[in-house]
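Team,

Forwarding the record for the chain on the shared tracking sheet. I've put the sequence and predicted structure together so nobody has to dig through attachments.
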Amino acid sequence: MPVTIYHNPKCGTSRNTLALIQATGETPTVIEYLKTPPSRAELVDLIARMGIPVRDLLRRKGTPYDELNLDNPDLDDDALIDAMMDHPILINRPIVVTDLGVKLCRPSETVLDILANPLPQAFHKEDGQRVNP
């Protein structure tokens, strides 16, 4: 089953998600979305397939969220997507795509819900937290 992760290697949650995918025996396609952002159509498709509101994909911490006034309730989905296209750092991560679904994997262990293979043994995140199979 193909697995794709929209990944930021500087993000601990993204690194843990990638490691969990690999721990199940999968070799995912890794897209460093800050270097290679999704197209507008791809981003719209990902959001639709996740079944989440556009606002739920916006990242606030370490982004221009506040300076762009993205908490303004008058901004519609198109304006929010425009902001993410102009500033990919606003796209929360990691997003994982499999045949079983598309998910914003926060916390990282939620990726297990959309992987074909189970976690074969306990996994320890970077912070030492244990994830059981």
